[in-house]
Specification:
The chain has 265 residues and is of the alpha/beta class. The protein is 38% helix and 16% strand. The chain has a single domain, classed as Rossmann fold (3-Layer(aba) Sandwich). It has a 7-stranded parallel sheet, sandwiched between helices. Strands 8-9 form a two-stranded antiparallel sheet. The chain starts with 7 loop residues before the first strand and ends with a strand.
């Protein structure tokens, strides 16, 4: 798994609850992971939890706010000289309850700058990096349950979430010429976390279930043409096979090399 030729995945927001689940799902599927997050207790907990996983590397990086931060991150990743197959973006500010009408208009602008602009900045600089890969590449954003319809008491999150859906659809179209598939995994239920477990409903997915669903998008299935994919419990099952072989086969195919005495298909 430490082979420098093995394509891996980069996880933005790895220190968050969903990011933690994505990291776990990738490692479970045999994919090397570069986990990006702010240095602190949560990243330390991530490292401790997966301390026996040789495929995990941590990259402590400040939050991405704009093009400057995203360009700096892309440069750091490129300098590592290891190919990427996928980027998973699970970034955003904590939910804040409150009606749209009860807060000044400037608050919505702040939410857009905090929850939408970083996604655009990251995509602008990481999509070109993915396009350099020698295998099929994916860029997966993860969205919450408040974007398709107004969520009572969380209007600002609904507006920014809807904007991220449209951002994904535009990026999905524009990135096709780069050979990168951009998709949004829309999780239509709240995620069960240690903080809300006491009050969580039985149908709420946990972070690992969300992570497994996100990782399932790496397969070139019938959902390849979809820019928005709704979370499904069916996709949250443990993987039946690892991704490592897929990566290896793809590299052999690109190189036109032979394997076991036969050219790879």
């Amino acid at each position: 798994m430490k082979d420098a030729l093995t394509p891996g995945a980069l996880v933005l927001g790895a220190s968050g609850n969903v990011g933690f689940g994505v990291v776990g799902a990738l490692l479970e599927a045999g994919c090397p992971v570069l986990a990006v997050g702010r240095e602190g207790p949560r990243m330390s907990a991530l490292a401790e939890h997966f301390e026996d996983e040789p495929g995990l590397q941590l990259l402590h990086s400040p939050c991405i706010h704009d093009d400057r931060g995203a360009a700096r991150l892309a440069d750091e990743v490129r300098e590592r000289g290891r190919p990427l197959r996928a980027v998973f973006a699970s970034i955003g500010t904590p939910l804040q309850a409150g009606r749209l009408l009860d807060r000044p208009a400037s608050f919505l602008l702040e939410k857009l700058e905090a929850d939408l602009i970083p996604h655009l900045a990251a995509a602008r600089h990481l999509l070109p990096l993915l396009s350099e890969s020698q295998t099929a590449a994916n860029y997966v954003l993860i969205g919450g349950p408040y974007a398709e319809r107004g969520w009572s008491g969380y209007g600002h999150a609904s507006v920014t979430g809807a904007a991220m859906r449209m951002l994904t659809q535009v990026l999905h179209e524009e990135a096709q010429t780069m050979g990168v598939r951009v998709q949004l995994l829309s999780v239509d239920k709240p995620v069960c976390t240690p903080e809300n477990a006491v009050n969580a409903c039985a149908e709420w997915p946990n972070a690992l279930a969300v992570g497994r669903s996100a990782v399932s998008l790496l397969s070139r299935s019938g959902r390849a043409a979809q820019s928005i994919v709704t979370w499904s419990a069916h996709d949250a099952k443990p993987p039946e096979q690892t991704l490592a072989r897929d990566f290896e086969d793809a590299l052999f195919a690109v190189a036109g090399a032979k394997r076991n005495g036969r050219a790879s298909a």
